[in-house]
Amino acid sequence: MEKNEIIEYWVKLSKEDYSAMVNLFKSGNYSWSLFIGHLVVEKLLKAYYVKNCDINPPHTHNLTQIAEKAKLRLTEKQKDFFDLLNTFNILARYPDYKLDFYKKCTREYATKQINEIEELRLWLLKQIEK
């Protein structure tokens, strides 16, 4: 695949995950919607990485590491949010953390985080388009 095709691939996957995140949220499955929200951002970061660095993005789910390797300039607020999103990837995945995370994921909490994911998603798409 050509570089632009790889970028489009990651953006397309992110868009599909975004749709899944929204549907999970609407169905009341808040913890899994946030888990998928992490993937939405991860895939856009990988698209940005491909655009600016190399066609092979890092094999990690750590958003902060991907952003650093891609030399993406982040605000402190964005860095903090990446750290929070990284926890969604772990907390929703492993049974010993899952119950506590599930209890934390009220509609109100998930709404706040999904709004932040949406804001970040739109910002990343603009960065990819530059």
Automatic annotation (TrEMBL):
A GO MF term: DNA binding
Domain HEPN span(s) in chain numbering: 11-120
Pfam families recorded: HEPN
Protein keywords: DNA-binding
InterPro entries on file: HEPN_dom (IPR007842)
Superkingdom: Bacteria
Signal peptide from the UniProt entry: none
Protein name per UniProt: DNA-binding protein
Organism, as annotated: Candidatus Sediminicultor quintus
